[in-house]
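Class, study these two lines:
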Amino acid sequence: MSLAALAAVAVALPVVGGLVVLALGKWPNAREAATLVTSTALFLVVWSMLGPVRAGTVEGLTLVEVVPGVTLGLQVEPLGLLFALVASFLWIVTTVYSIGYMRGHHEKNQTRFYFFFAVSIAAAMGAAFSANLFTLFAFYEVLTLCTFPLVTHHGTEEARKAGRVYLGILLTTSIAFQLLAIIWTWQLAGTVDFRVGGILAGRASRGVLGALLVLFVFGVGKAAVMPFHRWLPAAMVAPTPVSALLHAVAVVKTGVFAILKISVYVFGIDLVRTLPTTPWLLWVAAATIILASLIAFTKDNLKARLAYSTISQLSYIVLGALLANPYGIIGGGMHIAMHAFGKITLFFAAGAVLVAAHETEISSMHGLGRSMPFTFGAFFVGSLSIIGLPPAGGAWSKWFLGLGTLEAGQLGLLAMLMVSSLLSLVYLLEVPIRAFFSKPPPNAHVHEGIHEAPWPSVVALLITAAATVGLFLHPEPFHELMLLVVGR
């Protein structure tokens, strides 16, 4: 089967699996087995593309011509394959985790949850393999709409309010800014196709193209660049597996992936470096990194702290895209994968604590590590990846981003990255230190009879924690794909 056909299968397979989940809704074991089978099959399909792509093969497929010169089409190339590999593998692990979490927490509407989760993964696959800006925009919007029922899953007033914020910010930014930028690109270049080296060089003045870059950066609201970030912490009312989907697998990664892909294949990195708006956009990303880290310090709720950590870490990838040099692009692409595995481990651990100990506030987690050693041990490993310390995979992506700042002569940005890592070291490692070593204050709630969360959830978080270490020892698959992206 050709690469193009495999891409079409990758988009269609989760939708078919979701329909099977609906049909099996009355039989929970069969429903969850169908989800596991579908997610595993999807990963095998995506994995089968790795060999041809590493050999230099790039293939496309036109699904339909919308207007002359603008098509809904798919294309398999290295950057999209990296994103698809991460999302498809983590769908398997998240499904295992969800079985323990959704049952252990006695969540309602579980069939609806698994269905929309599957459709969300299909949208992420469509974005990953998009052949042009129109296709990317279409799947970007589908992802927003099909994750809305997941954000509002509990049906409470708080969930509905969060859903309105989620939908309002993401739709407003994409329609007001991103769609305008796509139409403007088509008017300037006569095409919206992704091409090596970009399509905009020489098509307009640097001032016009700089304004266009600003529209794209702020129009991709899923990247959560400040001030368009409030949707992300608002969405924390959703069940923890949804938070994992939002923060590690599909939604936010679609955002930063889009910015990276637009920088490489629409503008071209040589052009991005010369635009007058690039320097201040770099500092907007740097400000987001630092401010979100500082806000994380103020959050006692664990999921809220992780949400602001995600906002900070996403701008690392935006920074890599805007550095527009090989090291920056490689670091940004690798951080898509490294952050995904590290952050999903942290959210899995947060959900496990909620299910087993019914705790959400960090200040109440004293001594829990002695009752839940696997959960908080995994949290420690995931934290190392987000901080950027060995032996976790995040050390590599942050290393390349640091080299990118040096290559660009941006010592100030390098200092910002180092300060951010120090901040994340403090606000993340507080959690396992408190859990393993702190004693409860007088008159505090004493955790008695607490044990680990249901075994599927524990197995899932141990897998992702082990993967973060594995990515430090063997980062070659993702590194080689990014070398192909920058032409090395």
About this structure: Residues 321 and 338 are 16 Å apart (CA to CA). The beta strands are 59-67, 70-76. The longest helix spans residues 157-189.
